[in-house]
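cron nightly-structures :: item 1 of 1
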Amino acid sequence: MSELRVHAEDRPVPEVVFHDFADIRRELGALGVIFERWQADRVLAADATPDDVIAAYRGDIDRLMTDYGFGAVDVLRMTPDHPDREALRAKFLNEHTHSEFEVRFFVEGSGLFYLHTNGRVYAVICEQGDLISVPDGTTHWFDMGPRPHFTAIRLFTNPAGWVANFTGSDIASRFPRFE
């Protein structure tokens, strides 16, 4: 179940927690964040490649590319036995921004996004079928957990794809992790 926890930026205990999709969408929408629920009903083989995932969701990807002018798409697929899971988790746990608008569509599994804006931290558990955007310049980080299981299609307006500008802040270390 998707969840949104809203924290003061200096307090790891949430001030409020939302589970209802409409509430989560409203709260994130006030930040300029798109939060939608899409059909993620294609069965992917355990050894599906990024090209296989893109082919399975080609219609949705094409629609998003047209609607938002995205110039790049990639697939991040993580499993509990992925050889780079610890290094990637550490990288994504560093607060950063992007100079461009981007979207993630979870076609399998789950992960936890943290958006840091307006003196608050918005922790969003995204599940299969959730689509979330990160507006350009929004400070954020992501936790896939110690035993990650998710496949996310990522779309970027920057043709170079995922390019992070790390803030150097240790704020992520002060908030509960995705365990």
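cron nightly-structures :: done
The first helix runs from residue 21 to 29.
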